[in-house]
Design brief:
- The protein has an 8-stranded mixed beta sheet with strand order 1-9-8-5-4-2-3-15, with helices on both faces. It has a 3-stranded antiparallel beta sheet with strand order 7-6-13. A 3-stranded antiparallel beta sheet has the order 10-14-16.
- It folds into 4 domains: 34 residues; 189 residues, Type I PLP-dependent aspartate aminotransferase-like (Major domain) (Aspartate Aminotransferase, domain 2), CATH 3.40.640.10; 33 residues, no CATH class; 152 residues, Aspartate Aminotransferase, domain 1 (Alpha-Beta Complex).
- It is of the alpha/beta class.
- The chain is 34% helix and 15% strand.
- A hairpin with a 3-residue loop joins strand 11 and strand 12.
- The N and C termini lie far apart (70 Å).
- The longest helix has 31 residues.
- Helix 1 packs antiparallel against helix 2, helix 3 runs parallel beside helix 10 and helix 4 packs parallel to helix 5.
- The chain contains 14 helices and 16 strands.
């Protein structure tokens, strides 16, 4: 009779065989066994990149049938935290949920009264981006204060932070590293330090990006160690994005740097108390920190008296926050653990793909504006990036290749997007563009004029909304696919050169 161990081994062996045959088109672009891309086939802007190892991990965890977050989840949380070099990572069911948990944690009555975000308090954010960076601010009863975005970097104009601050009202800054381009962390950290504000980094598009600064500047901001695996010499401190603020978030949706299908994480950089609070909000709001299925790790399950409950009320059913249930499943975490081991190669592939597109389209600089990393002044095909005098540097593992159509071009962003669509080349806007123009935020302001506050005219965010799109950089893009993208854009731009109208 076949033992259960032998039977499982047979199932997993067949699973690997099936996945190799069924999913060859989803292997990394550099994998020689990947199915080749053929002319006329779609080129997605992003997607799942995996092999039979991820499929085997998912099936193995499913056969164990624990399902809810368990040993695979605990292992991935530890491994992600170790990669980043932070105190804790907590898995959740999406990047949007991660943002909700992160900002909710800062409302907890367990925090010092003067730092706790209460209804009506303000959180500074940026107008251009993805809505669920901002929506949780409103959802916890706080007021988002919008500053403008720089059309070149896609990131917040951090020179507007001071204008956005109101003493006694401003409690935090919450912004994303746009398309894998770190925002100006040195300016933001100095601002937060000056006013004792929380910094929440939305790192959903930026896992594997790093930011460095001269050591004296870093030490003045409270940092003296590099993140694991990063070294920029003795005179500089270099750290992953998502490790500079108090708390940060990740998304593991398929377009992102690694995937669990759906999924995300809340990263607790330093403060152990924030871990307990964030975990509570993720897990129904309960006060107990025991994992599901495990009881009495505090050895006083029936020894607490909290709120107005009777003494000895079961700690597993005691709730200190108005929380949620935002955990992912253990089979998802099993997939994520395999993906995490691929992360270094995925990071490099994204950098190389961005560079390939930038070099290929350099002749279109008369009509197209390309992104620059924060602190870069320009890009040169021989020297690469040149940097400003701040001494700070960014190393981008790009989520996307950002293109803006210049005002003097004979075609519009929409026309370029339509041409890319006709050629089955995936492209996206910079998410919501200027969020203040989105129906949800227009209605929010209509219903309550005090629901948000705006600093300045939002000219940069409007420019992004009107002129910008991005292509993919994900590690499933082959050289043939990238070449097709470049050739399509070149041909389209050249068709307007003589008459101002397309000539085909």
């Amino acid at each position: 009779m076949t033992s259960l161990t032998e039977l499982k081994s047979q199932i997993l062996s067949l699973t690997r065989d099936y996945a190799r045959q069924a999913h060859a088109a989803y292997r990394p672009a550099a994998d020689p066994t990947r199915s080749p891309w053929t002319q006329g086939s779609p080129i997605p802007y992003a997607g799942r990149v995996f092999t039979e190892t991820e499929v085997e991990a998912a099936v193995s965890a499913t056969l164990d049938f624990w399902l809810t977050l368990g040993s695979e989840g605990a292992a991935m949380e530890q491994e992600l935290a170790a990669f980043l070099g932070i105190r804790h990572s907590l898995l959740v069911n999406s990047g949007s949920s991660a943002n909700l948990v992160a900002i909710s944690a800062l409302t907890s009555a367990k925090l010092p009264e003067e730092r706790r975000i209460k209804p009506g308090d303000e959180v500074i954010t940026v107008a251009a981006g993805f809505p669920t960076t901002v929506a949780p601010i409103v959802q916890v009863g706080a007021v988002p204060v919008f500053i403008d975005a720089d059309p070149i970097t896609g990131n917040a104009r951090c020179d507007q932070l001071e204008a956005a601050y109101i003493a006694g009202k401003t409690k935090a800054v919450m912004m994303a590293h746009a398309l894998g381009n770190p925002f100006d962390l040195s300016a933001t950290l100095a601002f937060c330090q000056k006013y004792n504000l929380w910094l929440v980094e939305d790192n959903c598009d930026a896992l594997g990006c790093s930011y460095s600064m001269p050591r004296p500047l870093a030490e003045s901001l409270g940092f003296n160690e590099n993140s694991p695996g990063l070294d920029d010499g003795p005179d500089r401190v270099v750290r992953w994005t998502g490790t500079w603020g108090d708390i940060s978030t990740q998304s593991f949706y398929p377009p992102h740097h690694l995937t669990m299908g759906e999924g995300g994480a809340v990263n607790i950089v330093r403060d152990q108390k924030l871990k307990v609070i964030a975990e509570s909000f993720r897990d129904w709001g309960r006060d107990c920190w025991c994992p599901s299925g495990i009881d009495n790790t505090c050895n006083k399950r029936f020894g607490w008296q909290l709120g107005e409950l009777p003494e000895g009320y079961d700690h597993k059913y005691t709730y200190s926050h108005l929380g949620f249930n935002l955990k992912p499943l253990d089979p998802q975490a099993a997939i994520g653990r395999v993906q995490l081991r691929r992360l270094p190669e995925f990071i490099e592939a994204r950098k190389q793909n961005w560079e390939t597109l930038r070099r290929g389209l350099s002749a279109q600089e008369d009509v197209l504006e390309f992104a620059l990393p924060t602190h870069a002044t320009h890009w040169d095909p021989e020297q690469g990036f040149c940097w400003d005098s701040s001494g700070c540097r960014t190393d981008c593992s790009w989520f996307g290749f950002k293109i803006a159509v210049k005002p003097g071009a004979a075609f519009s962003r929409t026309q370029l997007a339509q041409e890319l669509d006709r050629n089955l080349i995936g492209n996206r806007m910079l998410f919501g563009g200027n969020l203040l123009r989105q129906p949800a935020f227009v209605q929010l302001l209509h219903d309550n004029s005090a629901a948000l506050r705006v600093v300045g005219e939002m000219e940069g965010s409007d420019e992004i909304m009107k002129n910008t799109l991005f292509l993919g950089t994900y590690p499933g893009l082959t050289q043939a696919m990238l070449t097709k993208e470049v050739e399509t854009i070149q041909t389209f731009a050249h068709s307007f050169c003589t008459t101002g109208k397309p000539v085909f």
